[in-house]
């Protein structure tokens, strides 16, 4: 391929990476910072204890935003699932070649950006739980903030370990420019199988981000419930994948224990 073609592919890959990174930052703000910020007093809608689900489902101020939010979630999940199918992956690979992964993550980021842009908070109706009285309000918000920070740090660490450059499609273009082939082809068959089945490398940490909030509104409940179900049913791991993961973790712990032993002077002296 001529240098101009390689430069265009590299530029598109880097642009896709920057846009996806920006979308990820917006998503962190959307799912963590906004719920943790102190909200303005909500409109007086009566005592939440007197709410009944029948009256809630008949209130257009509640039903309409929830319906729009559900449609947005459905469209995002549909886009993410369809583009992850084998048929669509083959089609995008045939059309875009080495840029297939970059196109995939860019389309997913665009769908996620649309979801965040048009998401409608439910300002009416009850909250399933809420801590608004001092001093517990400040302590609960601070505790939730610490949990979210730790969870996101773990998520970012897992993404880096999981080969973030390859997840974003940058590594594929880099290898292609250097004529090194597909980086996925260098992995073992078991690793390739795991990558195909495990579409979401984080689970527990993201559940904490979704559910650990000082106030659970109806729209937050919808977001947390739908994404939690998608995380549960969005992968196709089987016993073979679990055995491979356990074997890899056992190797990591064995290497780590050996390094700890060799770096301990007392252990070295004792072995002599």
From TrEMBL:
Per UniProt, the keywords (alphabetical) are: Membrane, Transmembrane, Transmembrane helix
Q: Tell me where in or outside the cell this protein is found.
A: Nucleus inner membrane
Q: How does it sit in the membrane?
A: Multi-pass membrane protein
Q: Which InterPro entries match?
A: Nurim-like (IPR033580)
* Keyword Membrane among UniProt keywords: yes
Transmembrane ranges, per UniProt, are 103-119, 139-162, 194-214
Q: At the top level of its lineage, which domain of life is listed?
A: Eukaryota
Q: Does the keyword Repressor apply?
A: no
Hey, what's the signal peptide range on this chain? none
Membership in a protein family: Belongs to the nurim family.
This chain belongs to the protein called Nurim
């Amino acid at each position: 391929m001529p240098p101009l073609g390689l430069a265009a592919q590299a530029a598109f890959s880097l642009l896709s990476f920057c846009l996806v990174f920006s979308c990820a930052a917006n998503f962190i703000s959307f799912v963590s910072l906004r719920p943790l910020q102190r909200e303005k007093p909500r409109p007086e809608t009566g005592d939440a204890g007197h709410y009944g689900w029948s009256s809630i489902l008949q209130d257009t101020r509640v039903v309409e935003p929830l319906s729009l939010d559900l449609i947005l979630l459905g469209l995002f999940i549909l886009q993410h699932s369809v583009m992850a199918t084998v048929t669509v992956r083959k089609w995008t690979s045939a059309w875009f070649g080495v840029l297939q992964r970059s196109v995939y993550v860019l389309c997913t980021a665009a769908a996620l950006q649309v979801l965040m842009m048009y998401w409608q908070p439910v300002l009416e109706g009850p909250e399933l739980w809420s801590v608004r009285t001092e001093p517990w309000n400040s302590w609960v918000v601070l505790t939730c903030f610490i949990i979210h920070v730790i969870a996101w740090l773990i998520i970012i660490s897992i993404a880096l370990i999981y080969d973030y450059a390859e997840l974003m499609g940058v590594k594929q273009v880099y290898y292609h420019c250097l004529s090194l082939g597909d980086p996925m082809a260098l992995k073992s068959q078991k690793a390739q199988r795991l990558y195909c089945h495990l579409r979401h490398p984080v689970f527990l940490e993201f559940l904490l981000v979704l559910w650990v909030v000082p106030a659970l509104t109806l729209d937050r409940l919808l977001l947390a419930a739908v994404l939690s179900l998608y995380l549960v049913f969005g992968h196709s791991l089987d016993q073979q994948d679990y055995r491979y993961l356990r074997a890899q973790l056992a190797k990591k712990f064995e290497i780590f224990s050996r390094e700890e032993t060799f770096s301990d002077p007392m252990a070295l002296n004792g072995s002599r």
